Amino acid sequence: MRTYGQYCPIVRAVEVLGDRWTLLIVRDMLIGATRFNEIARGLPGLSRALLSRRLRQLHNDGLIERSADGYTLTEAGEQLRPIVFGLADWGARYAFGDPRPEELDPEVLMWWMHGQVDTSQVRKRSVIQVEVADRRRTFWLVLEPGEASVCNYDPGFDIDAVLKSDLRTLYQMWEGEIELNEGLRAGTISLTGTRTAIRALPGMLGFSPVAPLVRAARHS
Length: 220
Known about the structure:
Blueprint: H1 9-17, H2 22-30, H3 36-42, H4 48-60, E1 64-67, E2 70-73, H5 75-78, H6 81-94, H7 106-115, E3 126-132, E4 137-144, E5 147-151, E6 161-165, H8 167-175, H9 180-186, E7 189-193, H10 195-204, H11 211-218
Parallel strand pairs: 3-6
Antiparallel strand pairs: 1-2, 3-4, 4-5, 6-7
Helix pairs in contact: 6-11
């Protein structure tokens, strides 16, 4: 391993965390990813071979350990939480702007969204159809008691609500740049369906874990 040749704790931390993709792997594990395929699906630009190598490095450095369900963060890994979200806070204030075209992937967004849906109040199956108008893509969020999944094909269940917008706007809603109700009022987001589903959706539809930081930066 190449080092910086300086005796300093900052240097040692950078040597552990400074490789490409490493902090994003830690980010995804901090918000709940535990299995290899879960991490890979949330980071489609990362090859599986390189993911294996980065996980091995994190294990060797004492930040993660293998478990029956895949991988878990050690205490040292968990202690990175304030650092990772501190970077998110700084990024929201000083480095965040409009999304670049190459940052907009509908499948990644839907994977992220399904992982943050609050199913604690779901008593029976509910299906949310998400239409990405400018990409001509449709996804289905299938919500069951205590579980959410995302489908790239029609699961064949009754649709309770339809959420429709362009991909850029959906990303901005997810990241906290705009509020769902703000988009509905502006007409950039459409939400139709049963009265019960429309009322429940804003409370169930999870947003990015960094959305509160983005909202705070936006209003500061």
